[in-house]
């Protein structure tokens, strides 16, 4: 069963966080076509968030064709979103883990790593535009 | 568009007419809460939150303006009272009664009563039904009170600072119970709750009303609120062009930099301003910090939101 988490003060709306986590779970194969997503009530009781927020996230996923709501039964995963296959994900994840070990050994803390990743992503985007 | 569960129009309440020392507890309050929402009511102490809730449940009569809950004027007719639940700030329970005694009272006093689900709700929370509520923890007492309020299957539930006295874990559990009840009702239960804890409201609410100095400053969908407010920064300059197009809630000028807390009333055309998102807490503080503004300015703020 998929467990959703919530980062507060992330400046990312809650429903967007849910959409991203479900999409990521589908990409990584944690959630497979046919699997049932947690019910709105389960998510709300677990995270103490607004039910309409969960509905909004599930509707967005439905609009993207990734899940399907079946009347009175629940919401089910429909297909994997376009993206790198799980093997690629796994390989990239492993090399990132090795990099994180190196960064920690060099004295970076989590905040330092995050800000380095963010600034690298930003400058990489700039290069792509330029 | 879903119909509104709660509508107020220029609603005002003045106290103290008999003593001659009159004071407005609420003024010019115009808002709409769509059905099925959880609406957070935030504002400084004395901003009129309790007065507004009392007007909604019919415990106070309007001095000016009008109020409608589920299309009716609040009052003590049985049809209205059947549909509306209200939990006052002080959690009014009989301390020497057990939880089971309270459930029996609920079953006796209400024409509609969800006996089994209400009992189960308390059992699921490990609340001993045969224990006197006076010896329970604050969190357990709040859960008993909430179960009583939900037991009558209300269509509108009004909660005055329900979590103010609770520790973080009890608060989370209370809000989870509340959210689950709203999920179960599938759009037929509307909640209005007041709280100082913006981080709680940010999680559980999808609609927000900000009151300050007894006036409504903001009443809107929560995602829209967060999306439309920005912090604009730039090397020191005249904020005039922004002020003419948008609603500036707060201005800070240093010799080098100008910072504006802004509600965007349209697209931001000038790309030389650096635009950052604001947290809900920052947005609420920006509204509460602009109390010194004149009435005319405030009504433009409200006018833009509606």
Task: Give a description of the structure.
The complex is a heterodimer of chains A (130) and B (306). With 130 residues, chain A is mainly α. Chain A folds into two domains: 14-77, Winged helix-like DNA-binding domain superfamily/Winged helix DNA-binding domain (Arc Repressor Mutant, subunit A, Orthogonal Bundle), CATH 1.10.10.10; 86-129, no CATH class. Chain A has five helices and two strands. Chain A has helices at 14-28, 40-47, 51-63, 86-105, 110-129; strands at residues 67-70, 74-77. In chain A, strand 1 and strand 2 form a beta hairpin. In chain A, helix 1 packs across helix 3 (51-63). Chain B has eleven helices and 13 strands. Chain B has helices at 49-57, 78-83, 99-109, 115-124, 138-151, 168-185, 198-204, 222-228, 240-245, 280-288, 295-305; strands spanning 4-15, 23-34, 38-43, 64-69, 84-87, 156-159, 190-194, 207-212, 215-221, 229-235, 247-253, 257-263, 274-277. Classes of the chains: A mainly alpha (130), B alpha/beta (306). The interface between A and B is medium-sized, with 21 and 24 residues.
């Amino acid at each position: 069963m998929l467990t959703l988490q919530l980062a507060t003060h992330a400046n990312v709306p809650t429903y967007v966080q849910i959409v991203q986590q479900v999409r990521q779970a589908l990409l990584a194969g944690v959630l497979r076509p046919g699997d049932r997503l947690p019910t709105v009530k389960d998510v709300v009781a677990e995270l103490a968030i607004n039910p309409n927020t969960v509905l909004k996230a599930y509707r967005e996923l439905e609009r993207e064709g990734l899940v399907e709501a079946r009347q009175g039964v629940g919401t089910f995963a429909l297909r994997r979103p376009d993206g790198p296959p799980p093997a690629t994900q796994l390989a990239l994840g492993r090399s990132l883990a090795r990099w994180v070990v190196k960064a920690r050994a060099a004295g970076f803390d989590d905040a330092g790593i995050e800000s380095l990743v963010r600034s690298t992503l930003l400058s990489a985007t700039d290069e792509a535009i330029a | 568009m879903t119909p509104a569960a709660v509508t107020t129009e220029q609603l005002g309440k003045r106290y103290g007419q008999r003593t001659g020392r009159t004071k407005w507890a609420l003024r010019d309050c115009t808002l709409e809460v769509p059905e099925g929402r959880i609406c957070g009511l935030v504002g400084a102490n004395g901003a009129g939150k309790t007065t507004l809730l009392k007007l909604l449940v019919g415990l106070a009569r309007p001095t000016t303006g009008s109020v409608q809950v589920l299309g009716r004027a609040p009052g003590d007719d049985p049809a209205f009272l059947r549909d509306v639940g209200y939990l006052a700030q002080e959690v009014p329970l009989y301390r020497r009664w057990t939880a089971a005694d309270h459930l029996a009272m609920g079953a006796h006093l209400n024409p509609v009563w969800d006996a089994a689900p209400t009992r189960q709700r308390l059992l699921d929370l490990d609340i001993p039904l045969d224990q006197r509520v006076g010896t329970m923890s604050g969190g357990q007492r709040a859960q008993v009170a909430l179960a009583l309020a939900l037991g009558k299957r209300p269509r509108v539930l009004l909660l005055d600072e329900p979590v103010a006295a609770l520790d973080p874990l009890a608060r989370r559990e209370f809000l989870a119970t509340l959210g689950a009840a709203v999920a179960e009702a599938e759009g037929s239960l509307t909640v209005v709750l007041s709280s100082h804890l913006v981080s709680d409201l940010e999680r559980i609410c999808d609609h927000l009303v900000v009151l300050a100095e007894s006036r409504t400053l903001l009443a809107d969908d929560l995602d829209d609120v967060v999306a439309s407010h920005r912090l604009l920064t730039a090397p020191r300059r005249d904020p005039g062009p922004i002020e003419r197009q948008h609603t500036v809630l707060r201005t800070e000028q240093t010799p080098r930099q100008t910072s504006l807390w802004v509600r965007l009333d349209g697209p931001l055309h000038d790309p030389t301003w650096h635009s950052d998102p604001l947290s809900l807490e920052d947005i609420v503080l920006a509204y509460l910090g602009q109390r010194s503004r004149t009435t005319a300015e405030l009504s433009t703020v409200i006018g833009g939101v509606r």
